[in-house]
Amino acid sequence: MCATALRSRAPSVPPAFGSESTRVASLPKPTSLAHVRWRPLAAHDLPVVAALEARIHAAPWSERNFRDALAAGYSARVGVRAERIVAYGVLMLGPGEAQLLNLSVVPEARRGGLGRVLLLQFMDVARQLGAEHLFLEVRVGNLGAIALYRAEGFAAIARRIEYYPADKRGGAREDALVMRCDLRRAAAPVI
User: Which pLDDT band holds residue 168 (cuts at 50, 70, 90)?
Assistant: First the structure.
């Protein structure tokens, strides 16, 4: 299923030195990581998470999919800010490996580091439970997520042709990039 819902943005052009926007840009900006509480996904979260999933993904998990993941003992987490879930994910563990099944950030909270924090948490959990490799699938068009995964030590190992269904606008099916991280080589997270 979907590994992430992170989006990319085109890089901005830096303002001219000494301009008003340069002075403003040099001020510390508030971080979107502030006031986010991370905790395990609970049964009472499932209707909200399923509704967010339907809003975010072209082929969303159902509430039943999330319930089954909890029943199977998968690691599932949510990030909560101002009593609202802003990020969530599901990690499946197997002998010597793990697979990131879902990592999603609500659109209004993207580009603030929440996806990275959740990814690092899952990498740490997988490492602690003896996984040597972490796998995931991501839409080939999700350049922001692919860049994040590469920055955290993932490498592309395969491509699944037309793996994802067409988006809600009825476009073409999309390939999935299969990525793997060697958790023995990737730096342990500092979060």
Answer: low
Q: How far apart are the first and last CA of the chain?
A: 27
| CATH number for the domain harbouring residue 50 | 3.40.630.30
- State the Cα–Cα distance between residues 104 and 6, nearest whole angstrom: 7
Q: Which of 49, 55, 8 is nearest to 149 (CA)?
A: 8
Whether residue 113 contacts residue 149, with contact meaning beta carbons closer than 8 Å, is answered with no
Q: Is residue 22 part of a domain?
A: no
In a domain, 71, yes or no: yes
Q: How far is the CA of 50 from the CAs of 25, 54, 114, 116, 183, in angstroms?
A: 37, 6, 19, 21, 30
Distance in angstroms (rounded) separating the CA atoms of residues 128 and 113: 23
Q: Which domain holds residue 103?
A: 32-182
The amino acid at 34: A
pLDDT band at 15 (very low <50, low <70, confident <90, very high): very low
Beta-bridge partner residues of 93? 98
Q: Is 5 left (phi over 0), alpha (psi -120 to 50) or beta?
A: alpha
